[in-house]
């Protein structure tokens, strides 16, 4: 006959397993934003770098108080959080593998893996930072990319996600710019890496417009990934999440592509 204590222990063990699976799934989802991509479009996981970012309060505080400290902390941040994911994108002519990330000047192992193992032949840089002089970081990445055998390095100097999205003229200008960037990505050689500074806003806007318009993914899927790439944890801790970027992606006229 099974004892009452045994049944109680068995029940507790069952609850423990359920909770373990729940929290494990939560961690896995958080540890790789690429897990939100449907299986038929998902790329193989990379060995170097992280598939997510985290919001670090001290960086935000330094931004307003000490720009030199901010630059130092930012370099450490992107060394820890490359914030990379990607997918197959169904361009009209042929599918192509597109990766998106933070700047990789501080994670050359990941850059090497992308070029040597994932056949990334082109990089499209989506930033013209006004925060600090990023020229040394861009030059470092470009030089290493060239040494590895990279073919095309495009630095988009006039793309900024700080458009005034309440101004219809500004929205239209942003739509035209995103359209030109996506057409550039479609026409570059080989697989492509796109990145901004932290892999949060510019990269996500361009990447998710492609997901909605070319891969036909729904907005719930896109919002979940954007939250992951901007360090969103919950409604009280939203990281660098910006609703205006989601609105821009949702309203983007796909016929432009």
List keywords for this structure.
five-stranded mixed beta sheet, 257 residues, alpha/beta, 9 helices
Supply the helix-strand structural class: alpha/beta
According to CATH, the fold-level topology is Protein-Tyrosine Phosphatase, Chain A
The whole-number mean of residue pLDDT values reads 86
DSSP strand tally: 5
- The top level CATH class name: Alpha Beta
Helical content (DSSP H or I, runs of 4+): 40-55%
Q: What would you give as the CATH superfamily?
A: Protein tyrosine phosphatase superfamily
Stretches where pLDDT is under 50 for at least 5 consecutive residues are 6-30
How would you characterize the overall build of this protein?
The protein is an alpha/beta fold. It has a single domain (44-256), classed as Protein-Tyrosine Phosphatase, Chain A, CATH 3.90.190. The chain is built from nine helices and five strands; from the N terminus they run αααββαβαβαβααα. The protein has helices spanning 4-31, 57-65, 67-80, 108-118, 135-148, 168-187, 202-213, 219-229, 243-251; strands spanning 85-90, 95-101, 120-125, 152-155, 191-195. Strands 1-2-5-3-4 form a five-stranded mixed beta sheet. A hairpin with a 4-residue loop joins β1 (85-90) and β2. α2 (57-65) runs antiparallel to α3 (67-80), α4 (108-118) runs parallel beside α5 (135-148) and α7 (202-213) packs parallel to α9 (243-251). The longest helix has 28 residues, at 4-31. Residues 6-30 have low confidence and may be disordered.
